[in-house]
Amino acid sequence: METIRSEIVSCDKRLPTSREQSDLPHNPREKLPSVVLMASIRVVGLLVCLVAVLPSGLVQAERTRYDNYRVYKLSIARVEQLELLQLIEQFPDGYAFLSDPVHLNSTVKLAVIDRQLRGRRETFGWTAYHPLEDIYAWLDTLIEQYPDVVSPIVAGETYEGRQIRGVKVSYKQGNPAVFTEGTIHSREWISAATVTWVLNELLTSQDEAVRNIAENYDWYVVPVANPDGYVYTHTTTRLWRKTRSRQNVLCYGVDPNRNWDYKFNQGGTSTIPCSDTFSGPSPFSEIETRTLSEYIRTIPNLSTYLDFHSSGQLLMIPYGHTREPLDNYYELMEIGTKAAVKLQERHGSVYQVGNIAEIIYVASGSSLDWVKGTLQTPLTFAYELRDTGEYGFLLPPEQIIPTAEETLDSIVVILEEGKALGYH
Prior knowledge:
disordered N terminus; zinc; eight-stranded mixed β-sheet; 13 strands; 13 helices; disulfide bond; metallocarboxypeptidase activity; metal-binding; alpha/beta; hydrolase
């Protein structure tokens, strides 16, 4: 197949003067001049500097490689610099981010891409990342091993004709329901690995606290909410984020976590189809988000929604379109703070807690906001799992189990504290 040609940008252009910087556009829909992009390298975030003649989604090419690309470790000194980086992320200009622009002094090791792809095992486990077919085959194994407890669910469909599969774990009737979702952003492999590890613990752990939440809640578990994109990250472009629907002759995919019909396009999205944060032409334009939302609506007694992402080590609550404390903000913050304390105990991982717009950036149209704003589900949390920038989306396989262990510790606290407040 034809390989898409890329050329490397120098990134050594002259920085704008202070006067030139004051003349930069303030309208986020206005395209940034190239000199601004060059200047941003000296002051903000973490990115790979490259310009593709055609975007990687244009044709079905062989696996994308990153030989000779430049990787930068960059520091954010001021809020204005952080906002500029986030603006660049929203509008495609030849830059690929390897972690979200959230923290100071971030870095990433691009060479670990190949390391992530190695180590697949014949037996399903958590010492390696697994492709979609392995995850689905493992779900089938659970259904066979635990027929009285585990049942299959199809939570939606995809543009390329795949099923969004999962399982329901139920030890008795009448339980409140917990919905867990991973990998709605396809490059965030640690989320699928964490969700499957937690699922396994719900079935096998002998820990009293884990047994309590396993048997007293009905669990609806969807490890990969964006199957088409996830497959694409394994076969073609490791850093692909979106769905795979065709938007025009040049651009593929919609950000499935900006496409939900709640406060759609109210900030933190892009209207440019090639952008990683393209919200789509309309709410629920993507079959993935539309069918997944329809399934979630059918879940009886839904009390808790847990959404897993990477990276940044954040525990987030609604909403993404505003920093105003809405609904049960203060109770969710209290629960989240206690969960973060517990999360730190096992391996020392420090998580920040806050609403999406407060601690990461404005981001409207997310699944978390839709579940909270439309269904009024009381306990709604989104995790940005490890790490804080060293590896970003490319977290090494040896961190899967520690990440999942500490995450489950915090989930126990969320459910216990929610019960104490009467949410279940």
